[in-house]
Amino acid sequence: FFGVLTFGFTMRGTLHLVQRLRRMMVDEGMTAYFIPSSDPHMGEYVPQRYTQRAYISGFDGSFGWALVTQDQALLWTDGRYHLQASQQLQSPEPWTLMKHGLPDVPAVEKWLVDNLDKGSIVGFDPWTLSADTHAKMKEALAQKKRLALELKPSANLVDRVWAEDVECPLPALPADPIVVHALEHAGRNVREKLRQVAEDMRKAGIDRYLVTALDDIAWLLNVRGSDIPHHPVFLAYCVVTAEGAATLFVDPAKLTPEAQAQLTAASVAVEPYEAVCTYLARASAPAGEVLGMGYDPAQCNVKLQGLIEANEAMEPCPQPSLVTAAKGVKNEVELAGMRHCHQRDA
Mind listing the pLDDT tens digit for each residue in 156-208? Predict the structure, then answer.
């Protein structure tokens, strides 16, 4: 099992969808449009709302990138999915399978440099592309300055195509409840975890840390959800302070009374999911000072990174996730739980 999305996109052709996308690209002045598989939290496994790549291509494996130009539509995926993609893609028109990992298959950025004309514009949704991937693509495109290729953030054009689809409506964001992960299974309470992350932040000279990975947030706050099939996570962002407090950005209607009470007891404030943008844009520091804002560029999307960089009161502090590192050191309760799972599944 490799996490096939199985949302039924493969049951119908995609040529008409690609044609609609191409018309929108012309209207936006784009030569190419890049469609990754991730959601705003850079996960490989995503809620149905963020399956744009599966929708536009018909390939519903968990990993892949799509690139659409006016005369080509290319789908990159790794060796887990070469056979599946060859069966699901409508080919040879409009899709060509690019078997990522094989020696004669260029990476996306190399294909762009080798095939696009001078002055071409490559569009992408800044919410679904990681800051790390964006930097690598931008660097690769800049190596051939004479081509003057440009990466241009835009609204999600696949969403626009999807919004016009009466046969397969654009899904809503998930609204399943968020519940407590009991201390008897977690082994450490929320306050203890926040204190550890805050201590790591102080050592790194960071005042605030933006947590974007969904599994990191679920672990840190001892809560679980079901926004993604087979994964106990929920859509949210979290900002931790060097004093050990935190703000959770999530749809508050999803929190059960028990989950809300646990967060309140641990001094975790709750704000609407979308309010993370306002927080990053307006956060201020004492006169003459700046806030060191940490984030993991592999887990943070381009949109939120841009808000951090645009706020003069913040100093961006990109580094690998402090929460992922803390989560990797299992306590005795977690170790016992892992052993029990293996015994149960044996």
Answer: 999 999 999 999 999 999 999 999 999 999 999 999 999 999 999 999 999 99
Amino acid at 243: E
Instruction: List the structure tokens of 71.
Output: 């005369």
SS3 109: helix
Three-class secondary structure assignment of 110-168 = HHHHHHCCCCCEEEECCCCCEHHHHHHHHHHHHCCHHHCCEEEECCCHHHHHHHCCCCC
Chain-wide mean pLDDT for the chain? 94
Whole-number Å distance between alpha carbons of 181 and 171? 28
The closest alpha carbon to 226, from 179, 266, 287, belongs to: 179
Residue pLDDT, tens place only, 115-151: 999 999 999 999 999 999 999 999 999 888 888 899 9
Q: What is the mean pLDDT of residues 231-245?
A: 97
pLDDT of residue 7: 52
Neighbouring C-alpha atoms within 13 Å toward the C-beta of 117: 5
What is the Cα–Cα distance from 318 to 295, expressed in whole angstroms?
5
Distance CA 55, CA 35 (A): 11
Hey, what long-range contacts does 187-192 have (CB within 8 A, 24 or more apart)? Answer: 187/331, 187/332, 187/333, 187/334, 188/331, 188/333, 189/222, 189/266, 190/220, 190/221, 190/222, 190/262, 190/263, 190/265, 190/266, 190/268, 191/244, 191/266, 191/267
pLDDT of residue 227: 97
Q: Which two tokens stand for residue 253?
A: 């209607």
pTM score > 0.90 for this model?
A: yes
